Each structure stands twice: as C-alpha cells, then as structure tokens.
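Figure 6 in text form: structure in, sequence out.
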C-alpha cells in the first residue's frame, strides 16, 4: 500500500477545524496528546476515527501487525483521512512509509512541532522527522586526505611556488616574485601537480591547506 499525494486540491476542502483522532491504547499518552492538540486552533480531537480528518497513530501501542489495524489504515486512505504516526525509531518510520503513512514523527515530539506536522500533513505534504535523516540519507563523501608523503617530497622552491599559487598569482607574477623565468615556474607547477596527484592548481592548494602546509 503506497500513499499517493493529492496535489492541487482546493484550499476550501480543508477549511474549518482539523479533526484529529488520537489512536492509542496508552491512556496516559492519549490524555497528553489531546491536551497538546487542543491547546491551539484549528485542531480539535474527536472520539471516533470515522469523524476525523487526521489519524494520529501511536505505533508503539497500536501495532500494524494486527489485521484490524491494517484495515483501519486502508479505510483511512480510501476516505482521504491522512495518517500521522508517532514512532520510536527510524526503522519504524520506514515501515510506516511503506504502508503509505503521510507523516512519521518521534514519539516524544514537542507539542508545537506536532501541531505543525499535523497541519502540514493535512495540507498534503509528507512529513518525516529530521531525526531519521541520518539513517535514510546517504553519508557525505569525505574529502580526500592530502598525501602527506607527497607534500613532504616537495622541494623548498616548490613550497615557495605553492604558497604563491595559494595567493592566486599567475605564473608570470610568480616568476617576478622569485626572479626566475616563466618556463621555470611552469616546470615547478607541473612537478607540484604530479607529486600531489592532482590536475589543477586549485586542487594542489586545497591539498596543502588540508595538510596544514600553508594557510590563507
């Protein structure tokens, strides 16, 4: 069962209070959720799921393994009632997403965030807590570490050229600073690139900065 968002609906369809059914067998949690929801308009709590616009589903107390729960979820989707799940971890949130749940939030969410998420879900958005992002998003690719051995292999003159490269000087200006020909500067630059296994002057400077060889 996959959720199919309905975009482009007339805003008048969602006019008036948003009716929320708190779906949990934990009475203490139910009381706390109702108090949090009714503390701010336009949310109101209802006693029957059939009367609700939104089902606030406490997954830890009402497991989706029960056939009647799955039936309730299917009925909610068929009648355009959105489902907002409260879960303990990213694995449970992923399971809810597979079932077509429009929003999955950490169970101990703060009341203002809960109200905002419910309204966003009711408006047609899919909302998943940022706490799950590190589990679902690919890990960033780390920047390649500078080859310290290659940096150590640079000659004294190459170090000087590298420092001037970091200042953004052209080969001609580097030659003037060091009082050498432009051909000599090109030779040193090509040697630096080869030793650092990079193809551009910028990459060579970046490698040297990461290794702490030069600073800007």
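Output sequence:
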């Amino acid at each position: 069962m996959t959720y199919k968002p309905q975009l482009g609906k007339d805003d008048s369809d969602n006019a008036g209070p948003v009716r929320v059914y708190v779906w949990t067998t934990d009475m203490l949690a139910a009381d706390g959720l109702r108090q949090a929801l009714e503390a701010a308009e336009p949310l109101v709590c209802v006693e029957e799921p059939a009367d609700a616009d939104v089902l606030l589903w406490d997954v830890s107390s009402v497991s989706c393994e029960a056939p009647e729960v799955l039936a309730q979820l299917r009925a909610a989707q068929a009648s355009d009632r959105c489902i907002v799940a409260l879960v303990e971890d990213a694995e449970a949130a992923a399971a809810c997403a597979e079932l077509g749940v429009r929003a999955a939030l950490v169970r101990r969410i703060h009341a203002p965030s809960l109200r905002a998420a419910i309204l966003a879900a009711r408006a047609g958005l899919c909302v998943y807590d940022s706490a799950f992002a590190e589990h679902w998003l690919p890990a960033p690719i780390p920047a390649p570490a500078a080859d310290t051995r290659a940096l150590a292999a640079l000659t004294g003159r190459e170090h000087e050229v590298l420092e001037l490269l970091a200042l953004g000087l052209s080969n001609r200006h580097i030659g003037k600073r060091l009082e050498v020909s432009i051909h000599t500067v090109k030779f040193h630059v090509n040697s630096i690139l080869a030793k650092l296994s990079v193809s551009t002057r910028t990459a060579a400077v970046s490698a040297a900065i990461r290794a702490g060889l030069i600073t800007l």
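Caption detail: The chain has a mean pLDDT of 81.
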